Amino acid sequence: MIYGKRIYLRAWEPSDVAFFYRWFNDPEIGANLGNAYPAWSMADEQRILDNPREHAQRYSIVLKDGDRLIGNCDLHGIDLKNRSAEVGIVIGDKDYWDKGYGREAIGLLLQIGFDGLGLERIGLWHVDMNERGHRCYLAAGFVVEGRMRRASYIQGQHHDNVLMSVLADEYRARKHTRGA
């Protein structure tokens, strides 16, 4: 387990599947993740849980106070030759939106990626309508690299995908500045 100030990251557990199923079938959450009409089955969620090779660095986001599961995150597309990966995150429990938990979880993923795996670059993309996510990524140190114009079609509208990344030296400079 990896501990932050208010949360910790732990491996996915079978009991998490019911939460993931509910979150990923929520149209608001799905739209922010680029999925216009979510239709995940419990079997879909269970297959993802049962395939550890595809998602070796995946975590549940849990509150320290009360051990409440509020989201999940991962490092995926890990390329050890080029020392890069992508992050994914969802705060599925809407009661915990806009409270900094996503930024804290992203910070722990960056620590795992840069300090633990020795990565050079960690990237992500998000749909332009996900303003909450965009603010979170900027606050965590990500920089906008560009846009894939009209790359996503969600509920009758085209949206750009925003490409972002943080590099190891940027992460370390930020960590040094914050005294972490």
Explain how this protein is built.
- By secondary structure, the protein is an alpha+beta fold.
- Helix 1 crosses helix 3.
- An eight-stranded mixed sheet has the order 1-2-3-4-5-6-8-7.
- It has one domain: Aminopeptidase, CATH 3.40.630.30.
- It starts with a strand and ends with a helix.
- The protein has six helices and eight strands.
- 33% of the residues lie in helices and 34% in strands.
The number of distinct β-strands equals 8
Number of helices: 6
Structural class: alpha+beta
Main sheet: strands, sense, barrel: 8 strands, mixed
The share of residues in helices is 25-40%
Domain module count:
1
Name the CATH superfamily classification.
Answer: Gcn5-related N-acetyltransferase (GNAT)
CATH class: Alpha Beta
Order of helices and strands: EEHHHEEEHEHEEH
What portion of residues belong to β-strands? Answer: 25-35%
CATH architecture: 3-Layer(aba) Sandwich
CATH topology: Aminopeptidase
Strand order of the largest sheet: 1-2-3-4-5-6-8-7
Mean of the pLDDT scores? 90
- Shape from CA axes? globular
Cα distance spanning the termini = 19 Å
Give the low-confidence spans. none
Radius of gyration over C-alpha positions, nearest whole angstrom: 16 Å
